[in-house]
Amino acid sequence: MLERALGVAFVMMAACGGSSPAFVDAAADGSSTDAESVVDAASLDAAADATVDATVALDASLCGNALVDPGETCDGNCPTTCADVLTCTTDTLVGTPGTCDVACQHAGTGCAAGDACCSPGCDSTTDSDCAFTIDPFYDPSYDVRDLGTAPGVPANYGGLTVSPADPNLLLIGGLANNLTGAIYALGLQRDPAGHIVGIVGPATVAREGQYNDGGVVFAPDGVLVLARYPVNELGFQRAASTTTDKTVALAGLGVAASVGGLAHVPAGHPGAGAWKLVSWSGGQWYELTLVADGTGTYDVTAAVLRQTIAGGPEGIVYVPLGSPLFTNPSVLVSEYSAGRVGTYEVDSAGDPVLATRRSLITNLTGAEGAAIDPVSGDFLFSTFGGGSRIIVVRGFSGN
Q: In order of start, what are the domains of the chain with their CATH numbers?
């Protein structure tokens, strides 16, 4: 692939603890990386996202028992500082340890042009510091936030996914498209509603990931399937493995060089259970036939060209059913070459209907991976270049 060329005011939730050795599916202790908050729909209550309300314990006599009881925010472990090293926020400590109601508030600095901050509730139409734009059609219902760079993950980023074994663990490709590439693990921070608001590093190497690209997808049985660019292969890692146990060459099946993105159609969607693949940069969209090979991985026995889509596609993911403004079943596509995330309605086989293409986000650089958070329905994508970022979009239906 060409040499491919976006933090967010949030509540600092309890982060995953414990360190992990190399090639273990767990994140290390650490603190959130520096980030800038980007492109938030003003219709969403950003202030609520940015604040944890401190409340007095329901039973004051329980404060001091070293247990966080109902109504308490802490007990014996109350924070003493709220500095989050994020730009675009002011950090305030509220409450007292004596009443076990200490909490942090991280308020956005507002839509002020020229302060190098794109705060919650702002976008490029209200703040010149916001580089990226959510399409006006989706703006009333969706909120886009830049979580920043992933600490410890080397550029450029490939695809990403949430671990099925731990919903607070993010897996993401680093050194994408390279023989030395790997899959890295980071923690996820969530707000009280379960939405993703931050990442916790530094990252640890979790799995092999040679030539990783926009497709990093778990099969329902826990096998990790990797799109491998530019060698035009799929890699398979068994459910209990952290190494690439099998690779399958795709050229002999008629797949144009080279595979970039990959998706498994979720239950309830048209074409449920099918595997879809796109090639970069031509945009060829295929349906794959995967057959269990008896060793814990798969054979790829067929690849049928279904469509050719525009924009230099990479990551692809299906929109959670019932999401606002998506009347019909739809798919999201990270369009690397076009610098945007596009949307399509899909047909009865789960393939994109070309005439329905529209933009979700524009003015991006290097849109790459794609994943849906199984907890909140948030849409996550990575960028290959453009500062190597992790972006989250909320507003989709939760699962």
A: 40-130 (no CATH), 132-394 (2.120.10)
For residue range 196-253, what is the model confidence (pLDDT) as tens digits? Answer: 988 889 999 999 999 999 999 999 999 999 999 999 999 999 999 999 999 999 999 9
Q: Which of 209, 222, 219 is nearest to 159 (CA)?
A: 209
Q: Is the predicted pLDDT of residue 150 greater than 50, yes or no?
A: yes
- Reported as type and span, the H/E element at residue 340 is strand 340-345
CA distances, 182 to each of 19, 247, 389 (Å): 18, 15, 17
What 3-state DSSP class applies to 379? strand
| Structural element, H or E, at residue 46 | helix 46-49
Backbone angles phi, psi at 214, to 5 degrees: -70, -15
In the chain, the largest separation of any two C-alpha atoms, in whole Å, equals: 71
257 vs 58, 129, 229, 231, CA distance in Å? 62, 38, 8, 8
Q: Which two tokens stand for residue 221?
A: 């049985």
H or E segment and range at residue 330: strand 330-335
Grade residue 399 by pLDDT with cuts at 50, 70 and 90. Answer: low
Q: Residue 191 corresponds to which tokens in the numbers above? A: 């707000």
Alpha-carbon distance of 266 to 9, in angstroms, equals: 32
Q: For residue 160, with 0-12 CB atoms within 10 Å meaning exposed, 13-18 middle and 19 or more buried, which class applies?
A: buried
Whether the upstream peptide bond of residue 154 has omega within 30° of 0, thus cis, is no
Q: Are strands 196-208 and 182-190 parallel, antiparallel or unpaired?
A: antiparallel
360 contacts 368 by C-beta, under 8 angstroms: no
Collapsing DSSP states into helix, strand and coil, what is residue 252?
Answer: helix
**H or E stretch including 47?**
helix 46-49
**Main-chain dihedrals φ then ψ at residue 48, nearest 5 degrees:** -65, -35
Number of helices (H) and strands (E) in the chain: give both, helices first: 1, 23
